[in-house]
Amino acid sequence: MSRKIVGLTVRDVRFPTSLEQHGSDAMHTDPDYSAAYVVLDSDCGLRGFGLTFTLGKGTEIVVSAIEALAGLVVGKCLQEIVGDFRGFYRLLTSDGQMRWLGPEKGVIHLATAAVLNAVWDLWARAEGKPLWKLLVDMDPKTLVSCIDFRYITDVLTEEEALKLLMNAQEGKQQREAEMLSEGYPAYTTSCAWIGYSDQQLRQLCTDALASGWTKFKVKVGADLQDDTRRCGLVRQMIGPDNILMIDANQRWDVDEAISWVKSLAQFKPLWIEEPTSPDDILGHAAISKALAPLGIGVASGEQCHNRVMFKQFLQASALQFIQIDSCRLASVNENLAVLLMAHKFRVPVCPHAGGVGLCELVQHLILFDYICVSASLNNRMCEYVDHLHEHFTSPVMIRDAHYMPPKDPGYSCEMLETSVQRHHFPDGDVWKRLLKK
Amino acid sequence: MSRKIVGLTVRDVRFPTSLEQHGSDAMHTDPDYSAAYVVLDSDCGLRGFGLTFTLGKGTEIVVSAIEALAGLVVGKCLQEIVGDFRGFYRLLTSDGQMRWLGPEKGVIHLATAAVLNAVWDLWARAEGKPLWKLLVDMDPKTLVSCIDFRYITDVLTEEEALKLLMNAQEGKQQREAEMLSEGYPAYTTSCAWIGYSDQQLRQLCTDALASGWTKFKVKVGADLQDDTRRCGLVRQMIGPDNILMIDANQRWDVDEAISWVKSLAQFKPLWIEEPTSPDDILGHAAISKALAPLGIGVASGEQCHNRVMFKQFLQASALQFIQIDSCRLASVNENLAVLLMAHKFRVPVCPHAGGVGLCELVQHLILFDYICVSASLNNRMCEYVDHLHEHFTSPVMIRDAHYMPPKDPGYSCEMLETSVQRHHFPDGDVWKRLLKK
Question: How does residue B324 score in pLDDT terms, banded at 50, 70 and 90?
Fold first, then answer.
């Protein structure tokens, strides 16, 4: 069977999360968690599902970008793509006319992520495995053949990547068994969005503690007095031994970040996330250096736009926690490169998730990272947000604050067709009703 | 008169330059120089024209992004916008939902550039001045009020920017008079696109020398043997005293860039432009360090996506020539920030131009830079490419290889309506004919 891709459809799916301030932070005060949702049809009937995450407005721009890429995918056989996945990756990211729109950043890269996520889903389904297991079972040579090493060979060559993967083969089966029984540790961001009241916050912390959560993230950055009260409240709720992280979502300039976080140091956060512009490598390095004596690390990555940026964040010792994203980077291919570079620099990877579909996707990558790359859980955990999972055919499974490895074939981002139709923007039922108001 | 903006139209305009290999380089082998072209209508009948430059495919994505921004512009009065231009800039670049698509990079930032270019054009027309003169006559306080200093205050504060502008007031009138009589020095890229034959190259060099050109750029990076022959040929044609620059358009990795350029050092290039990824600040710093002993500088900027990136290129001594772009950065506002930072670091600015409309636009910025910021012509020149000027109502005027200051009110990017209609994609006459083939 050739598994030729005969069609690509993309839809603009939006959830009105802003109505209840879910997902609100200092810079994104009213997000409507959304997705540009891709379905690939193959001639054998098998389908591949992929998406990229957005915050509402502008999703139609990403849809337009995916439509522009469709011609590079439709008509190709799955085997032809994955047999030279590096070449296919390069085809999508380096089109002589379209690369001007990035290159490898912004809308065009988000679109590339959605398309490639669908290709990986199709591949995993064709092999009858969940994506993490497809990766775990893949031989290191095939794995590195999926990576475009352009612009990162000064830090990681193909040969070196291969060696890192070979070295991590030891203990692999044991780690896979461990994951299947224990799951991957998670932390929760659901308790303390910036738009939530103190009462909500208290209730959510109480519930989360009862469900076994031990690691909590608090959104900060809009108002220092407010942050002090909220961080104090959460630290009081969770006690001195549980872990607290804070997240400013890029609200500050470099010097402001340092002084603001120093004021919150009393609450012993493990990290400050996105203290400033996601582009500011040297700024993050300065902040890291200033906060190191306080035992506070710097985390970033959900808007770090490609492997070249991550390379430099590592070279400059600018981050103590690397937060990969399954949709900001161009799918598994580029995330593999970042996982390997992070391992080389011994910086723990703690994925960004939440949104819609991000938990479903990124759990596969971090399982692979533990089993086949880092072999470590030290200072590592994957973000979890308790929203919108009900719209997926294979939603994440959390047990005792751990991600349990998915078992269904694919990359876990197939949405229920009824959900897609109801939330289709602007003509699904949900939006027709809201827009009428 | 309120000058309320009552309408925004945007059109996808493409020129089939790839048919004759105009604009071809090592990474963009078949560009169709294109523009997302914006017209603002105001209630008093005055119109503002703006554009962002693209390479063909994907222009419709930028059009979609401009349409998404239109709602933030239409309905506002010009005075309301320019009275708080920093606030308006922030409104466009920091929308809580749309900033996820960048932030401040890629398609959404190119779209912002087109919209703001049109606003600046409208402002200059309302004042009856060419844009450069509007800027030159503007008091420093108003100038800095147009700049968003977010994320750059660790290098340049508003107070410092004001001081730099105040200090440069001395000799301003004299420099303005000098520009009006002599013009701003230019170099030509029109002689040596990568797709041109040796014969074409010889002929174009001969013609350019006869027209008074003394500075020449050669595209390199696809094949070393080819580059050696072409650079040798150009150096032979122009002699030892004229200036040669080479441009690799991001073709190499860091180590490859260093060794390749060393092989071409015999031709005494002033700079190597875009040796590697435009995102690789530390990579450019390494290349700069390696090439400094050979007297070769590193230049980049046409794909440097915002002021935060330029800030770091300067902090890291990664560039010896800063190449601003009138459409990659978000219009005059962000370019002002970069001009001031470059001046602080004493790094010469040599704008990127060419494409369609880039020469028309950027000449205004570099005139302002000389008259009001840098006050220096040392190692400075503005790119010039001899294509597509005939489509503009106020095309650039070159005299003896110098840009002569434009005199018509506005930002010089109004296109002839007949040109827009003929090249409208895909239904203008030019494209109807080509697509039929």
Answer: very high
Distance from C-alpha of B102 to C-alpha of B284, rounded to nearest angstrom: 23
Query: pLDDT class for A1, splitting at 50, 70, 90?
Result: low
Which residue among A105, A315, A316 places its CB closest to the CB of B305? A105
Mean pLDDT of A8-13: 98
- For residue B80, give both structure tokens: 């309301």
Which single residue is written with the structure tokens 């009428």? A436
| Cα gap A189→A236, rounded to integer Å | 17
A372 DSSP assignment: I
- Contacts for B172-180 with beta carbons within 8 Å, 24 or more apart? B172/B136, B172/B371, B172/B372, B175/B370, B175/B371, B175/B375, B176/B136, B176/B371, B179/B367, B179/B370, B179/B371, B179/B405, B180/B405
CB contacts < 8 A, A to B, total: 198
How far is C-alpha B355 from the geometric centre of its chain's CA atoms? 9
Taking only the tens place, the pLDDT of each residue in B101-131 is: 999 999 999 999 999 999 999 999 999 999 9
Q: How many CB atoms lie within 10 A of CB B433?
A: 11
Q: Token pair of A9, please?
A: 């459809």
Q: Is the pLDDT of residue A437 over 80?
A: no
For residue B382, give the 3-state DSSP assignment: strand
Task: Name the burial class of residue A86, with classes exposed (0-12), middle (13-18) and buried (19+) by CB atoms within 10 angstroms of its CB.
Answer: middle
C-alpha angle with apex B278: B288 to B329, nearest 5 degrees? 115
Q: Which of A29, A107, A281 sits opposite B96 (nearest CB)?
A: A29
Nearest CA in chain B to A285: B312
Please give the torsion angle defined by the CA atoms of residues A337, A339, A340 and A344, in that order, rounded to the nearest 10 degrees: 130
Is B100–A150 a contact, with Cβ atoms under 8 angstroms apart? Answer: no
Tokens of A84: 């030279």
In chain B, what percentage of residues exceed pLDDT 70? 100
pLDDT given at position B237? 95
- Cα–Cα distance measured from residue B275 to residue B257, given in angstroms and rounded to the nearest whole number: 6
How far, in Å, are A132, A147, B11, B302, B376 from residue B175 at the CA level?
64, 53, 38, 27, 10
Distance CA A91, CA A85 (A): 10
Contact A136, B71 (CB under 8 A): no
Residue A390 and residue A370: Cα distance in Å, rounded? Answer: 27
Residue contact B153–A254, C-beta within 8 A: yes
Alpha helix segments (H runs only) across B193-245: 198-210, 224-238
